[in-house]
Amino acid sequence: MKLDGKAISRTLGANETPDICDHLCRSEISRFADALKSGENLVVSCTQEAPLFRELAEEAGHQAGLTFTNIRERAGWSEEGAKSSAKIAALLAEAVMDIPAPGAVPVSSDGVCLVYGRGQQALEVARKLSARLNVSLVLCDADDVVPPSISDVPVYRGEIAKAGGHFGAFEIAVNGYAPAIASSRGVLEFMMARDGAASTCSIILDISGNEPLFAGHEKRDGYLRADPVNPAAVAEAMFDAADLAGEFEKPLYVSYAPDICAHSRSMQTGCSKCVDVCPASAISPDGDHVHVDHMICGGCGSCSSACPSGAMSYAMPSRSSLAARTQTLLQTYHNGAGKRPVLLVHDERHGAEMIAALARFGKGLPAHVIPFAVNEVTQIGHDWLAAAFASGASSMVFLADPKKRDELDSLKFQIDLTATLLTAMGYGDDERITLCEEADPDAVEALLWGLNPASSPQAQNFTPTNNKRELARTALSLLNGVAPAPQETITLETGAPYGRVQVDQTGCTMCLACVSACPMGAIIDNPEKPQISFIEQACVQCGLCRNTCPEKVITLEPRFNLDKQALSAVVLNEEEPFNCVSCGTPFGTKSTVERISATLAGKHAMFKTGEAANLIKMCDRCRIEHQANSANDPFAAGQRPAVVRTEDYQAEEEAVKSGAPRTALTAEDFLIKDDDA
Predict the structure, then answer these.
(1) ∠ at Cα 288 (287, 292), nearest 5°?
(2) What is the rounded distance in angstroms from the CA atom of residue 448 to the CA atom of residue 583?
């Protein structure tokens, strides 16, 4: 690589010109050993020899941080490597950032493994794995199986009809379940077949060639699936399975805040985007909220991308950390006089391998194309896209694995939403965001070197927040402030997470059902008078207010309001309150009370007289008092009978003994008169 140490140092704000190593991992290894003696955090600009450097650091007792970053395949190995000083400095600045690690949940596997396959191949795989794991074999086809001379693996026949659970706690149901007969001679025989047999295991190795047992099976830890006609794939799956016994930690990819979830209220469904986009079925409805099974979650991040409220938030890394990384990269690149930066968003598997292939066998990455690694490209939402453009990105390319095309719908929606906003602001009709689903390095290389990025929006300074809607609004407002065509409102497509609600005032009865249904507090009431107001910035267009409204007078209008008015409450509907005819206290709305009075007064049996009809126009307190004091008090009870005491019965018995005629006690003898003490 041709490295300009002075330019890199100047861009990073260092006072000293760094020494450039030619062979640090071999003949110049002593220079690394000397650096370890400083006891400071070290960054090594090489990932290929990371194991060697870690070993040396451990031997030297180095306690400080040791970070590795790749500037070779990502920058230096390129036809424009000599022009990549600004990019190299940006990659180094990114490497020294302290990004908090996500939380984790412990997972325990006892090594119980189910091998599910066909014929002799499945039997051989099960027998080889049994040296490392506690293996059972279920054969969906046993035609060519030679009965083993030693029964070292339990063998059964059957079809797995249902599978559930997760790594360490899988549950299966098998139809046609039958154990093998140990005395089988020429052909493996089975006995006592039955349906609905249930069992559990920690690991499943599926080489049946049938349909996967799980949706999004690639993301189901502990479920290994290989094509039985591909011996290399089967061998790789066996090696992976052999290491899955013991104690593990599974990252907590997403965090969930149920208090701002717009899934449901009062059995009315609003937003179900996270449930719809999850490829692993790790998210399910749970009353008014949703349940996230972290043991099943594969970390694609589509739920976080699609969530309109930010209730689902990706934690690997957090939203604010991801935006801060972007700012550091772009700010450093611009400080080095870099022009029109293109962010190449990629994962650490397909994307990193593609970049390495371009560097080793092609032209490498252009000097203005900055690789930006994420756990999954599908975790990206419009909030990060807006933040990246506000930080000075010219355009972006998403390098997606074509094997995961069925998981890209949410990402495509986020890209289209951002493109609509940018185009409306006058940032051009150029393709500022490109989704590349190529597996051919030549096609990717042609795309990247054929880019003609537009001028970068003016970079803005802002502090990233972890609140999705606040981050998006801050970035979009900054972009709009320096846009070629600033906008007040931008019309969006149905399904967009921004917009306003409109109320047909002629049909609204001010029942306030919409207020209680809104999970975001976008619709609020006024405790002083009949009034409902609306805060547009808080609305996620979930539709719960519309679905709950008994009069069906609420409609949604998707749009993005860039005016500051969107942050304040505006009145949707208000009415004059009706004053109680008895005490003057305001209650209800004038139109409602008058409409009810006109409908019932003089017509309904309870409100035939004028005095009775006045009850409709009284507040709840006065209505009760009036009825209690009226001759026709519905709460009045009859005269209460007196308690019959023991003395009364004794007196009656004495009268009988004395021969006096018995006087039967009646209910009237025990009535409490008004003048009784």
Answers:
(1) 70
(2) 78
Blockwise average pLDDT, block size 10, the chain, 677 residues: 92 85 91 93 92 94 94 97 96 94 93 97 96 97 92 95 97 97 92 96 97 92 97 97 96 95 93 96 95 95 97 95 97 96 96 97 97 97 98 97 94 97 88 94 97 92 96 97 96 96 91 94 91 96 96 96 95 89 83 82 77 83 82 66 84 80 56 51
Rounded Cα–Cα distance for residues 328 and 312 (Å): 25
| CATH architecture, domain 490-574 | 2-Layer Sandwich (3.30)
Domain spanning 252-314 has what CATH number?
3.30.70.20
- Let me know: does 569 contact 535? Beta carbons within 8 Å: yes
HEC secondary structure over 108-141: EECCEEEEEEEHHHHHHHHHHHCCCCEEEEEEEE
CATH class for the domain made up of 106-249: alpha beta
Report whether 412 contacts 385 (CB < 8 A). no
Angle separating helix axes 29-36 and 50-59, nearest 10 degrees: 50
**Residue 371 pairs with which residues in a beta bridge?**
344
Task: Please report, for the chain, the start and end positions of each structural domain, with discontinuous segments joined by +.
Answer: 5-95, 106-249, 252-314, 319-487, 490-574, 577-629, 638-677
Cα–Cα dist 206/209, whole Å? 8
Angle at 47 between CA 4 and CA 446, to 5 degrees: 70
Structure tokens at 657: 């003994």
Q: Do the domains 252-314 and 106-249 match in fold?
A: no
- Structural tokens at position 78: 């390129």
Residues in the chain: 677
β-pairing verdict for 283-286 and 289-292: antiparallel
Give 573-620 as a DSSP string.
EE-PEEEPTTT--EEEEHHHHHHHHHHHTTTSGGG-SHHHHGGGGS-H
369-373 β-sheet, strand order: 369-373, 342-346, 395-399, 433-436
Q: Collapsing DSSP states into helix, strand and coil, what is residue 585?
A: coil
Strand partners, 435: 398
Q: H or E element: which one contains 273?
A: helix 273-277
Specify the pTM: 0.86
